[in-house]
Amino acid sequence: MKFLSYKLLVPALAILAGSTISGCKPGKAGSSVDADAAQKVYVAPGKYDEVYAFLSGGFSGQVAAYGIPSGRLLKVIPVFSQNAENGYGYSEETKPMLNTSHGFVPWDDSHHPELSKTNGEDDGRWLFINGNNTPRIARINLATFKTVEILELPNIGGNHASPFCTENTEYVVGNTRFSEPLDNSNGDVPINSYKKNFKGAVSFVKVDKDKGAMNLAFQLIVPPFNYDLAHAGKGPSHDWIFFTCYNTEQANTLLEVNASQRDKDFIMAVNWKKAEELIAAGKGTKITAKYAHNVYNENTHTATSVMETGTQTLDVTKFPGLVYYLPCPKSPHGVDVTPDGEYMAASGKLAAVIPVFSFKKMLAAIDKKQYDGMIDGVLPVLKYEDVLHGEVKKPGLGPLHTEFDGKGYAYTTMFVSSEVVKWKIDNLEIIDRIPSYYSPGHLSVVGGDSKKPFGKYLLSLNKITKDRYLPTGPELAQACQLIDITGNKMKLLLDFPTIGEPHYAQMIPAEKILKNQVKFFKLEENKNAYATKSEKDTKVVRNGNRVDVYMTAIRSHLAPDNIEGIKIGDEVYVHVTNLEQDWDVPHGFAIKGANNAELLIMPGETCTLKWTPGLVGIVPYYCTDFCSALHQEMQGYFRVSPA
Ligand code: CUK
Ligand code: CUA
User: Fold this and answer.
1) Global pTM?
2) For a disulfide at 465, which of 426, 479, 589, 590, Cβ 3.0-4.6 Å?
3) What is the CATH number of the domain that holds 29?
4) What is the residue range of the signal peptide feature (predicted)?
5) 3-state SS, residue 168
6) Residue 3: inside a domain
7) Ligand 1: which residue has its CA nearest to atom 5?
8) Residue whose CA lies nearest to ligand 2 atom number 1
């Protein structure tokens, strides 16, 4: 995502890099690190990293897990995109995960990973992430690192301000980037009827306290702005969630000009507690809308997809007190709430200051009822001076996102001037700045958006890589930089490349995840309808032209290993159960010429590959994961005969 033209960027980058960035040689300025940097990121062979980092994959649609401080890639967790590496979205069990109201959509643009929270602290149970393009929210189980739920969101076009957890994960919340006509209205309208016919919708997804199951509880219908990002309150601001709005001009053409007219746009403060009460009191209006709800069950190892048909809504113009608007300079992008829940730091990407708002003052201003006008005649705009804690002056160019270290400091990325700026929350003074290479979007501090940040490390997630790595043709991996924030001055420790575009990351001390790790699935608990629990139960069952192969895999044998009687025109379903009961012994399964991916079956799991043989002859199959000294012996043959 680029907010400003590249022409604007080049001079700023060149100054900071101390060299021309179009050259092939590494920038010298960024190469200087303290002598102890290597020691600080060195994790000796056989040792674990201290922290997990979960980076969104942007246009890869996935999430990547890294170890910090080493920067070692641990796993790509498939979420919204098919992943041939482990058959996600290809196996019969996982295909339903990618169902939507538009059909099978095996890709998305994932921006914001969000860890579940208990009492405002990251609890290490689940990771939520948004699909921006075909609006969806996914939930990953951090005990198994598997995507276990994907919920589509109706009525919106671009689930960008999402998913942000309230303090106890009561809800994950999302809001639209692209306002559009609601799903129950006639969408066949002139685009220039934007102001009249388009709407925004804030989605509140209820999260089950124990199981994590998500359900769309209600949506708030809001004015047609572009809603960009959000963060929920905590502590005193527990009942509220804050969204940045740009394009409050409500332009629908030439947004790069027409959406930057006003000197100030808004933060929209939403009282979700009040909305919840109104819904509970039956004040909601049910509107029809079609959206998919996909759940992966880790006992049956199978996903199911259900199409939901409606949602409760509240039109905020009809319920006073649900939303207030705080003027915010200019085209705000991120809004971040301090660990104590008292201040909201916003980042107007075209603004020359970082405005910091006071929650206390916001409540006082609401009480006072002296407004700076109304949106749509009824939605109060509070006065800037009334709600402002203060402004961080001259922070740099293009402030985007802020996180906190729990010691009273905030860190903000500057997209245009390519730096991370450290400032003090109470007096808003700038303490330090460090160049980033180049153009950081989000940053992440360990626990940095929670009530109790762990601090220590900061990741700067950079949009432009240029000269940081050996060139790899026109496309370079995006860059991530690890910065030590233990001292007064920030120190660059390490660069490492990422998968796709890491918009945002969440970091959490490893111990919070380690304690829940599942090492294999218990075979006796495998409830997959096609599970085969011992080699003697393997079989081939024909029913018309459908053939079900009940297969097992164990070191070092696929059973059955010779299958005859398959005919052209058959639909063959190979259900492979991995009989291993040990950590880190997956088996793979691939068929010659199968117009599909492989399977990668975890110990105790059953996965199914569908195959429609196209040619008469002998067709080998084999295990794709080198699992033992006799891995190369894990093979078999189909015999395919004419119809
Ligand atoms: S966005 Cu990418 S830099 Cu989608 Cu959170 Cu700000
Ligand atoms: Cu099983 Cu290789």
Assistant:
1) 0.94
2) 479
3) 2.130.10.10
4) 1-22
5) coil
6) no
7) 503
8) 587
